[in-house]
Design brief:
With 185 residues, this protein is an all-alpha fold. It is 67% helix and 0% strand. The protein has 8 helices and no strands. The chain has helices at residues 2-31, 40-51, 53-58, 84-105, 110-131, 145-163, 166-170, 177-184. The longest helix is centred in the first third of the chain and has 30 residues, at 2-31. The protein is elongated, with a radius of gyration of 17 Å.
């Protein structure tokens, strides 16, 4: 029961923090009178590749060490206990990163800036999937083959959208090596 509860908590922590970033990006872009950093189809794409498989992979995550040595949780304890700060901090950091890159590359072509914003958002949310695995560490690489598979599949799908004719439908442009360095950093 504790392992199932922990995995549900990871799932909720991940989805709430990832969606907080998306809301923050759109909200602050509107408040700052910037062009939309993400178009509706691009937002749907983010939700498809980051909210689906990585979130489900967290449901089958390996248990924390000494899970049975913990005291039982109080029956009225919220599933969000010890999670608010993670959600708010990750939402703020992700929003600043995505909007910062969007604003920096906006001096070029808006499609390029949107491609970089979308790609950095996807990579940030995939990073969050690893961060949401533990309340004790910022980034947990412990073994979960399903999560690693989901992350690699999400990245592969996004690369297909960027580097095939699908990029026309999504209004994206291919990224150069230097632009990829910005996104990964």
């Amino acid at each position: 029961g504790r392992i199932i509860y922990d995995n549900i908590k990871k799932f909720v922590r991940y989805l709430l923090s990832a969606n907080t970033v998306e809301i923050g990006v759109i909200l602050f872009a509107l408040l700052l009178n910037l062009p939309l950093p993400l178009l509706p189809l691009q937002l749907l794409w983010v939700n498809l590749v980051t909210d689906g498989l990585p979130a489900l992979a967290l449901c089958v995550d390996t248990p924390e060490v000494n899970v049975m040595k913990r005291k039982p949780r109080h029956i009225a304890e919220s599933i969000l206990k010890h999670t608010y700060s993670f959600i708010l901090l990750s939402g703020l950091i992700g929003t600043l990163i995505v909007l910062g890159l969007f604003h920096y590359f906006l001096d070029f072509v808006v499609e390029k800036a949107r491609t970089i914003a979308l790609t950095s958002l996807i990579f940030f949310e995939l990073f969050l999937a690893f961060s949401a695995r533990s309340e004790k560490s910022v980034f947990s690489l412990k073994r979960n083959k399903w999560l690693w598979g989901a992350v690699f599949l999400s990245i592969a799908l996004h690369l297909i959208v960027i580097y095939t004719p699908l990029n026309i439908a999504f209004q994206l442009t291919p990224l150069s090596i230097m632009e990829w360095i910005w996104v990964v950093l």
